[in-house]
Design a protein that fits this description.
Elements lengths: L5 H17 L5 H16 L4 H20 L3 H37 L17 H16 L9 H9 L12 H9 L5 H33 L8 H33 L16 H7 L2 H15 L6 H19 L3 H28 L1 H20 L3 H11 L13 H15 L4 H11 L6 H25 L10
Helix pairs in contact: 1-2, 2-6, 3-4, 3-5, 3-6, 4-5, 8-9, 8-16, 8-18, 9-14, 9-15, 9-16, 11-12, 12-13, 13-14, 14-15
């Protein structure tokens, strides 16, 4: 089940909200858990028992880990809890990739290939795996006490707003809200408004642009002219951002309606003046996970420069592999790791000399080239496409597309960069973070939210089903 579907918008969500607010507060976590199980089972019925089983196993392993005072035993329980989560991730996400590469290697020596039935990837497995790992390690490090109730832990891991595409929420960030939450009509309004903004990003912008991107990248890339290539990659750059950021907005909005405050996951990443800054603004919760649970334990930047560069490469190679079991994602991670190392070797000083706007333009171009590697799984085709970006062949500039595509692309570009200007930042803060509305403002916000929701539902019915890009990660 996806947020941008009639099943969710017209049946699941209204029924959930009615049950949630009608029942007494002490039962609301059970309502969340019940609906979350239904939500996940709708799209992945074959995996729901594995998800439930691993969640229950982790809960009791962490309890045992916390109770024991023997260091070796504590480490054993911690390792087992992580192994339960990572074991499922490795099997479901990387088994086919590992077997395919192993077969390619042994074929050189004339050995028979290893046979393995194709393993289907459960949606959202990377997100809830990382979330469970944060709980295990934070409890091991003493940052929080283990949860007392199994149902509360299951709510934390399986809560449907952020179950399948994040944001990755640390337990310490919502520890109090799992047990006790404040509710207000103002929070419901903010939550609904944020949800509708995210739905609009997804349905009205990302889906419209994405349809043309798929058409363009399905053509013969070796003969694509430079103008078309840049339009195609700019369109994919906008599609990916508005798709994923739209989902995060919806998750944060749903959480707020329920009384939770999930962390922000995007902060205008294309306004960045360096790749280092880009990764502080793009998929913020994944960046925080990689920093807290991988980069810092490796030594972070509290070591020699050579070791620091090595740490960055390791983090981004694994970050690339986290996004998908394919070599293009590994290369994409290495590509970003290279730019991060170059910035620490002196490139950042160059950015400071040329100023904010030129630096933002350069960073945006670097990011777009990276997205070409990310989008096109065949590395040969990806590099062919990148060569067309810099072929300076403008023989047939422009693409045959309807006005709606160009309109949405322009709107996406405008809203991606508008916060570079003070009025744009002020406008965004008023829409996203305004604490209180006047009576007139409340009426206007409700009317706008309902109107946009109905408009999005109409668009969904006209266009059809469109899954979120990050579901497969």
């Amino acid at each position: 089940m996806v947020f941008s579907s009639n099943v969710f918008l017209l049946y699941f969500l209204p029924l959930f909200l009615i049950c949630y607010f009608v029942c007494p507060k002490r039962f609301r976590n059970y309502i969340i858990l019940l609906f979350s199980i239904v939500f996940y089972a709708w799209g992945a019925p074959d995996f729901i028992l594995w998800l439930l089983g691993s969640t229950i196993a982790n809960f009791f392993l962490v309890k045992l880990m916390h109770k024991t005072e023997k260091k070796p035993l504590k480490k054993l329980y911690c390792g087992l809890a992580i192994a339960v989560s990572l074991g499922l991730l490795v099997y479901y996400k990387y088994a086919n990739f590992l077997i395919d590469n192993l077969n390619a290697l042994i074929s050189v020596f004339g050995a028979n290939p290893i046979r393995l039935a194709k393993v289907l990837l459960p949606i959202g497995i990377s997100f809830f795996t990382f979330q469970s790992i944060t709980y295990v390690l934070d409890t091991y490090r003493g940052h929080n006490e283990p949860m007392k109730k199994l149902s509360d832990y299951m709510v934390y891991i399986m809560m449907f707003p952020q179950l399948i595409a994040g944001p990755i929420v640390r337990y310490c960030d919502i520890e109090g809200e799992i047990r006790h939450r404040e509710y207000s009509s103002n929070n419901c309004l903010h939550g609904l408004f944020r949800f509708v903004i995210g739905l609009s990003k997804k349905v009205l912008i990302a889906d419209v642009i994405g349809a043309q991107v798929d058409t363009l990248l399905a053509t013969n890339l070796s003969v694509m002219d430079t103008g078309t290539a840049w339009i195609a990659i700019a369109a994919y750059t906008m599609q990916l951002y508005f798709d994923f950021a739209g989902y995060s907005d919806m998750a944060i909005g749903l959480g707020k309606m329920m009384g939770f405050h999930f962390p922000e996951n995007f902060d205008n990443p294309y306004n960045s003046a360096s790749i280092t800054e880009f990764w502080r603004r793009w998929h913020i919760t994944l960046g925080a996970f990689m920093r807290n649970y991988l980069y810092i334990p490796l030594g972070g930047n509290r070591c020699s420069k050579r070791r620091m560069y090595f740490n960055l490469w390791v983090v981004f190679l694994l970050s690339g592999l986290w996004h998908g079991a394919s070599w293009n994602f590994v290369v994409w991670g290495a590509y970003h790791g290279l730019w991060l190392v170059l910035e620490r070797m002196g490139l950042k000083k160059f950015y400071e000399k040329i100023g904010k706007v030129p630096s933002v333009i350069i960073t945006f171009i670097i990011a777009m080239v990276g997205w070409a590697i990310f989008r096109i799984e065949d590395l040969g085709q990806a590099f062919t496409f990148i060569s067309r970006l810099f072929a300076f062949d403008f023989s047939s500039f422009g693409i045959k597309a309807d006005a709606q595509f160009y309109t949405m692309l322009i709107i996406a570009l405008v809203f991606s960069f508008i916060t570079l200007f003070p009025f744009g930042k002020k406008m965004q803060d008023a829409v996203y973070y305004k604490e209180e509305y006047s009576i007139a403002g409340t009426i206007v916000a409700w009317v706008v939210a309902v109107f946009m929701l109905l408009f999005c539902i109409a668009a969904i019915n006209a266009v059809g089903f469109s899954p979120f890009i990050y579901f497969r990660f």
